[in-house]
Write a structure and sequence with these properties.
Layout: E1 6-7, H1 18-24, H2 42-60, E2 67-70, H3 73-87, E3 94-98, H4 103-114, E4 118-122, H5 132-138, E5 143-147, H6 161-171, E6 175-178, H7 190-193, E7 197-201, E8 212-216, H8 231-234, H9 242-255, H10 260-279, E9 283-286, E10 296-301, H11 306-311, E11 316-317, E12 319-320, E13 322-324, E14 329-331, H12 333-337, H13 342-345, E15 348-352, H14 359-373
Parallel strand pairs: 1-11, 3-4, 3-5, 5-6, 6-7
Antiparallel strand pairs: 2-8, 7-8, 9-10, 10-15, 12-15, 13-14
Helix pairs in contact: 1-9, 2-9, 3-4, 5-6, 10-14
Length: 374
């Protein structure tokens, strides 16, 4: 195949868009003051942060004062989970989540279990989807939070958040959703979802790394994850990072335009059709066939090892869904929860397309795969 580098790992991280770079550039030298300062040097910095907050709020369909800037999606998830846990001090605390959440949800849950929380991990079906009735059955009188991702980062399956929200609302339990993968690809209006908390990460939608945000519905109390001065209306201590906040705001403005997603879905489906035609039963689809992110294609190359396939395609950046050890195969928690047989899942490869992906690139990947699989 062509020796050119082909990037098909946009679910891991996206490049910073030119419009985002342009928005950030002035703040490398200007608005250097502390946004909390009341003098002339702090005012431009404060105005830039609040303008960025308004841009994120417009993307999420919420009020600007419901947006808390964080250092990324991981902090936003931790802030939601630990904030709910510590805010409910003095009573038993039960959390409901799923088996296929990102480690930024699973690991905080395990940490909270060590502090006395009880956590129910709801399963999924063979297509990676949560049954809302399973969430309903998991609820208890002492449930303080339900956390279900909007779209899975590995297989792309979109969860029925609106249905789950109706259940949690009836029960009076707050609902959090990790929407890091869906921003810019799907509608992320928090009122349409019915969520009370929602996390995003800048580098997943063409913004900079090291910045994210947590939507907190007005009136919901969380114990702050970061303690110190009264930044972010007392919800997250630490001097605001003006440069990265501006970058997140610009990325949010870009994400409001989802005109590219239909073409991306067509490109992904054409890619899958070509793989299936070329390799037949040697390739198998993971995830929901229709309720799936427009850019995500997770496939199993049956009888092969995903890491070995990618090693034979050094110019292609993509991800695998398994790890091969000396005497065993370890599937990702997502593939395990979907009950993918190990002998099939060992060949899992995730291709995640982006705004700039072309058919010529995908065609080159198919030819490279043909050579690697021959």
């Amino acid at each position: 195949m062509d020796a050119a580098q082909i990037y098909l790992d946009h679910n891991a991280s996206t490049p910073i868009d030119a419009s985002v770079r342009a928005a950030m550039a002035p703040y490398l030298v200007a608005a250097f003051g502390n946004p909390s300062s009341g003098h002339w040097a702090g005012a431009p910095a404060r105005e830039a942060v609040e303008a960025a907050r308004a841009q994120v709020a417009a993307l999420l369909g919420c009020a600007p004062d419901e947006v808390v800037f964080t250092s990324g999606g991981t902090e936003a998830n931790n802030a939601a989970l630990t904030g709910a846990f510590f805010a409910a001090a003095g009573r038993s605390r039960h959390i409901v989540t799923t088996l296929v959440e990102h480690p930024a949800i699973i690991e905080p849950c395990r940490f909270l279990e060590r502090l006395g929380a009880t956590v129910t991990y709801v399963g999924i079906d063979a297509r990676g989807m949560v049954d809302p009735d399973d969430v309903r059955r998991a609820l208890r009188p002492d449930t303080i939070l339900v956390s279900v991702m909007h779209a899975n980062n590995e297989v792309g399956t979109i969860q029925p958040i609106e249905q789950i929200a109706r259940i949690t609302r009836e029960a009076g339990v707050p609902l959090h959703s990790d929407a890091a993968q869906s921003v810019g690809k799907l509608d992320t209006d928090v009122d349409a979802f019915g969520v009370d908390l929602l996390s995003i990460a800048g580098h997943k939608f063409y913004g900079p790394k090291g910045v994210g945000a947590l939507y907190v519905r007005r009136g919901l109390r969380l114990e702050p994850f970061m303690h110190g001065a009264s930044h972010e209306s007392g919800r997250r201590a630490g001097t605001e990072n003006v440069l990265l906040d501006v970058g997140l705001g610009a990325a949010a403005a870009l994400a409001c335009d989802r005109a590219w997603t239909a073409a991306c879905r067509d490109l992904r489906d054409r890619f899958w059709a070509a793989l299936h035609e070329r390799f037949g039963k040697r390739v198998r689809l993971n995830g929901h066939p229709t309720e799936r992110l427009c850019n995500t294609l997770s496939v199993d190359f049956v009888g092969r090892v995903g890491s070995e396939i990618l090693a034979a395609l050094p110019g292609v950046a993509a991800s695998t869904g398994s790890a091969c050890h000396a005497d065993r195969v370890t599937l990702s928690p997502v593939l395990e929860a979907m009950h993918v047989p190990p002998e099939v899942g060992i060949g899992a490869v995730r291709f995640s397309l982006g705004r700039s992906t072309t058919w010529d690139e995908l065609d080159a990947v198919i030819e490279g795969l043909a050579a690697a699989l021959s």
